[in-house]
Specification:
- It is a single chain.
- The chain is an alpha+beta fold and 129 residues long.
- It has two domains: 29 residues; 96 residues, OB fold (Dihydrolipoamide Acetyltransferase, E2P).
- 19% of the residues lie in helices and 49% in strands.
- A five-stranded mixed beta barrel has the order 1-2-3-7-6.
- The longest helix is centred in the first third of the chain and has 24 residues.
- The radius of gyration is 19 Å and the shape is elongated.
């Protein structure tokens, strides 16, 4: 009887570990959610008006306090609109201050003020304005 009880407990613990692993590494993870405070445009050539970073005020996953983070946009960054559970591809032109967004990071965070990190995905949830 004790062997069966121990086996059931070990099986339940195993299921918990598997579920936790899939939840932590799933594709729905979001590294930060917040509001776009400002946009920074790349004017190094003088004739471009391409957004190259966002200042976002919000919460990083696991943080209990809000902070400002400079989100760096590169050629691999993808922008989406979220409608329910569906993601629809959007463009950088759809980004503007006052939008509630979620961001997935890639690479290390530079410990500057504000901290800077590359975005792999930016998900536009809705406008707050």
């Amino acid at each position: 009887m004790r062997v069966i009880t121990v086996m059931v407990l070990l099986f339940v613990l195993f299921l918990g570990v598997v579920y936790g692993t899939f939840t932590a590494t799933g594709s729905d993870r979001v590294d930060m959610s917040g509001v776009i405070v400002g946009l920074c445009n790349d004017n190094s050539q003088g004739d471009t008006n391409v957004i190259d970073s966002l200042l976002v005020e919000g919460y990083q996953s696991g943080a209990s306090y809000p902070q400002n983070v400079s989100i760096i946009i590169n050629k691999n960054t993808t922008v989406y609109h979220k409608y329910g559970k569906n993601l629809v591809k959007a463009s950088l032109d759809d980004l503007h201050p006052g939008q509630k967004i979620e961001v997935r990071f890639t690479g290390p965070m530079l410990q500057t003020y504000p901290p800077q990190i590359n975005a792999s995905d930016i998900i536009i949830l809705y406008d707050l304005r």
